[in-house]
Amino acid sequence: MGANVIQSVRLDDVNDTLVLLDQTLLPGKTQFLNLKTVEEIWDAIYKLKVRGAPAIGIAAAYGVYLAVKPSEAADVRSLYEEFKKAKEYLASSRPTAVNLFWALDRMESCFIGEMNAGRTVQEVKEALHAESENIRDEDAEVCESIGKHALTLLKPEMGLLTHCNAGAIATAKYGTALAPIYLGEEQGYNFKVYADETRPLLQGARLTAWELERAGVDVTLICDNMASIVMKEGRVQAVLVGCDRVAANGDTANKIGTSGVAILAKHYNIPFYVCAPLSTVDLSCATGDDIEIENRRAEEITEEWYKMRMAPEDIKVYNPAFDVTDHSLITAIITEKGLAYPGYEGSLKALFDK
Ligand code: MRU
Predict the structure, then answer these.
(1) Cβ < 6 Å from ligand 1: which residues?
(2) Could you say which of 13, 43, 137, 244 is catalytic?
(3) How far apart, in whole angstroms, are the C-alpha atoms of residue 230 and residue 56?
(4) Which ligand 1 atom is nearest residue 53's CA?
(5) CA distance 140 to 29
């Protein structure tokens, strides 16, 4: 990815702010927010100004660092109390993407390690700063590696379908499901990408279509309910999606509608690939039933994207933000350490041990 790269999440060390690309304003406006407090960062995560599992984790890591940076705590124990409060608060912003909890836990392990080593308040703050930057830098490397592994499964001129946005703006760089598309583009693969619009929040229409178009990729926007016809017409040779949490048995939570795409792919005999950093694999969840699914406000369906309300005032609305794709529908899970194939309990664990 060259000059066109947009950094959606970064730390501004001069002003001590979290700088976020406001993803709710895309594609119309490219506007950055400068956030200082944990309340502002919580709100940005909840409102999807920053979204995508890895980007949420990175934002939360910066968030806990920024929470303790200005602290005047007299000793490391008191600083730890402040840290834990900020950590718990940010962890309550969204429940499904495990990267949020993974990044916050990693920041806490860093804190505890420093505390046990007898460091000063200032030294602990510096270590948290470094750890938050490591989390972001490692994510960029992880995504590139996922892209390289995924590209081995793809051939030039293929038609690819993706759901939601698992692109550069959902991560530190490259994205997960879109990483092989960017790498393929650099190598002249000339993929034809179909982007599901992704009801109700339109991440596919607003974000994936925008991201791929500005990178020069051949991308076609379709409504979610058109995936079947484009598959039937032979336009799609592989499906690539990201994910928010993978259970030990390979069941995968991703944006609502993903499991339907997987069922269609099975019907049309099209490989269905899930791109997942190992930080998204949660071996403490035995199956997808253990993954908490976020439910969101009714207005997202009834009025948010319309000039006028599109449903009766008192209509009951069910708005789960994610669904779980059964492991039996997944051809392979592509991680930074390589591919996991069915028999996921063993194959995922083997990647962790690598
Ligand atoms: O609600 P969102 O937009 O945060 O949902 C995001 C997704 O479902 C992505 O596919 C997932 O987080 C992977 S991002 C690399």
Answers:
(1) 48, 51-54, 97, 164, 166, 170-171, 175-176, 203, 242-244, 254-255, 321
(2) 244
(3) 32
(4) 12
(5) 24
Alpha-helical (H) ranges within the chain are: 38-46, 53-68, 76-91, 98-116, 121-151, 179-186, 203, 209-214, 227-232, 258-267, 299-302, 344-353
The CATH code that applies to domain 2-144 is: 1.20.120.420
CATH code linked to domain 146-353: 3.40.50.10470
Q: Are 182 and 174 in contact (CB under 8 A)?
A: yes
Report d(CA 70, CA 184) in Å as an integer: 44
Ligand 1 atom with least separation from CA of 51: 4
> Quick check: is 244 catalytic?
yes
What residue segments make up the domains of the chain, in order of their start? 2-144, 146-353
Average pLDDT along the chain, 354 residues, taken 10 residues at a time = 78 97 97 98 98 98 98 98 98 98 98 98 98 98 98 98 98 97 96 98 98 97 98 98 98 98 98 98 98 97 94 97 98 98 98 95
Q: Residue 194's Cα: distance from chain center in Å? A: 19
